[in-house]
Amino acid sequence: MAETKPERVKTFSNVSISGGTHGNEMTGIHLVRRWMSNATARTEVERSSFKTHLLLSNPRAIEKCVRYIHVDLNRQFSHDPITPDKDKYEVQRACEIQKWIADNNVDYSIDLHNTTSNMGVTLILTSLAATTIGLQITASIKEAINFPVSILSLGFAFGKRDSGFTSLTKSGIGIEVGPLAHGTVKSEVFQRTAAVVSKTLDIIEAFNNGKEFQEREIELFECKKMVKYPCDENGNISAMIHPKLEEQDWKPLKKGDPMFMTFGGQTITYEEEEVIWPTFINEASYLEKEIAFAVTKKVKRHLGAVKRI
């Protein structure tokens, strides 16, 4: 049997790190501000083989400490040209950021987020970013970190294909860390986010300098759909996450397991045959869309070897 040759991929020359895509997720905001304003701190994100670019994505939302002003900025991005809308600040900002990405030739993006859900550290890839090199980098980050890390591939579960920040570059990750209440900072979350960013940059640097990623198998979660809260005939939410499901992100949910509890105290169980792994459980930001949690499947993915061109 002939040996499979490694896939050849171009090195990365410009890496962006963004915080404040959602203006009330404070970890990324404070990290990016620190790296921007402190020359010594900036060396933490500088490497010799590529240039690092820093961005506070949504300044007006950051100023008001809200998720967004008009619409969710993280749903406005696209690798295709974005249609301007002067009445929606985030659409205009998405156009500006798309130009900033192009002007700086950014080819790998790191977007920093927080979640109120008990997800720990999660590395998120859009479908465009879930390439062999993208998954190899992500798997290497997970291996290099000394605390639990989950890998989540979004696919089409959020409706609009690849509308996240990394869709602007095709390569990159979202780093989602929680649980953390919006508008707050927690030292452990801050330090873990900084550690993941540092390892990501180290791994890109090693690849640029000739490190070959070996063929391997990895485990990750694929997002399939979103589950909404039960509602009454008037469209009002009529149930909440069951206590036995609360804070159980990344744990299997099987047929007959408690899923919701009505405001009257009745239990609603999960009745599908297929085992699922819920995450983003009771995420505060999704309540406006009546989303209770995301459904994921745990899968294994074979990755071929990759080396630089």
From TrEMBL:
A GO cellular component annotation in the UniProt record: cytosol
Cofactor note: Binds 1 zinc ion per subunit.
Molecular function via GO: hydrolase activity, acting on carbon-nitrogen (but not peptide) bonds, in linear amides; hydrolase activity, acting on ester bonds; metal ion binding
UniProt cross-references to Pfam families, sorted A to Z: AstE_AspA_cat, AstE_AspA_hybrid
Annotated AstE/AspA barrel-sandwich hybrid domain residues: 217-298
Entry keyword Cell cycle: no
Family statement drawn from the similarity comment of this UniProt entry: Belongs to the AspA/AstE family. Aspartoacylase subfamily.
Name of this protein: Aspartoacylase-like isoform X2
Gene responsible for this protein: LOC116305905
